[in-house]
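Reply to dn_fold:

You asked what the input looked like. This is it:
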Amino acid sequence: MKIAILGAGNIGGTLGRKWAAAGHEVVFGVRDPGSAKARAALESAGTGARAASLAEAAAFGEVVLFSIPSGTVAEIARALGRVLDGKILIDATNNFAGPVINNLAALQAVAPGANLFRAFNSLGWELFANPILDGQQVDMFYSGPDGESRRQVETLIAEVGLRPLWVGGNDQVTLVDNLGALWVNQVFRHSWSRRTALKSLGVPGTSGRVR
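and this is what came back:
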């Protein structure tokens, strides 16, 4: 799969390394492909990745992950325009200072034909690097449309080492947003470890009804 990662920080760099190791073609889209941050991401990802401009990366990717500062998403999405349409777009950004935490509306406005997903926003990057906590696999709750694009996103989540748990379409996105807000609250306001995660102890696919 061709994957564009917009941003080369801790989240984008870690996911890029995992996906390159899984055999995908990864391009980091950055403002300066020669920056120290881009070089560090490439060194970690190895030969399966390269760096390019934001526009070149977005044009390349079948999947485009947004892991840039939340406040820049709308501007960058407008600049990229229709090149995003028809692709799988994953919003991993968080705007905790605004009335809406996610940036799905900004992406939908410029790419109405894209398949939008909300994922990788509710945990620290350390759990992407090592997704086993106290002997248990870490869960990744996500939202987005059902169908083939969802299966592809689930595969990408699983290749990071996380257990994908679908909460539903993007009409349920606030559930994913609020998990991110809860993680930030516990880690930054209550000094919990950044290796903190919520675990679902239910079994996906069962009704949950009491007999």
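Residues 173-189 form the longest helix (17 residues).
Hope that clears it up.
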